[in-house]
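seq:
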Amino acid sequence: MYRSIPVANKACAERVRSRAQELHVERIKNMRSSIDTTEPAVAHLDHLRNNLKREQMLEERYHNIDRENRLLLQKMSDMMKQEQKPSAKPARRTQSLTRGSRKHEAMRITRENSDILRRIREVQPVYSHVALEESYRRNFEHLKNITEYPLVLKKKSSAPGSLAGLNNAMSSSSPDFGARAGRGQTAGDELTYVLKEGKHLGKQYYLIEMATDGRTLAISAHDSEQRKTLELVVKEQNHRKLYREFHGDYSRMAERLYLENERLHIRMSEGPLGSKVAEMAATF
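struct:
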């Protein structure tokens, strides 16, 4: 247990303690070092500030370099003063003993390379691109004949899932923009199909197709039993909102589709998109 030192008068004891503290602080301020830390007097001597030995070695080195340069210059001057006398006998060329064999070997290698090049040019191809194209055309015709739904072949895009605008893109105001998407047709390089899957809307099963030109989104729902197609054109602003919300996943975007009064709608985050609906019933 802490107990203070007993004193006769607390005020007097506090005054004495304060005075002792002031004296202690005053002594600390006026305290001086007992060791002399000033610069010594010998620090100004010349032999301590200058390295005379190093300067002497540098002078000797420079003197040797100058001497060698003078000797070299003297030799060059003497060579220029001497007259160049033409050689009495021409230099004799030494003929190689293996010159003939090396020449025959080089000719043999050249002849073999020419034969290899000729054989490569005259060889007949194993695969015929004409036959391959004809086979692809026949297979494509067979595929169109056996498919139940409209044939749609996906095109490879340079950046899948991106909203990059295409050249000569078709606007959503075009009267046959949604119709081509609903029938599974493409307008040259203008439409890119991003989704094709089956899905239940209410109690009916539909084939959902989504196509975009980089701006608007055309959605079609095909019912093979009742032979009708419902279509929805999403403007660019709403398309980009849905794209950002689902991070480019059109399969999740298709889950927002629903039917109301035999019309196709998509549920936005702020409400249903009911004013941007186009419907078409087609008979095949």
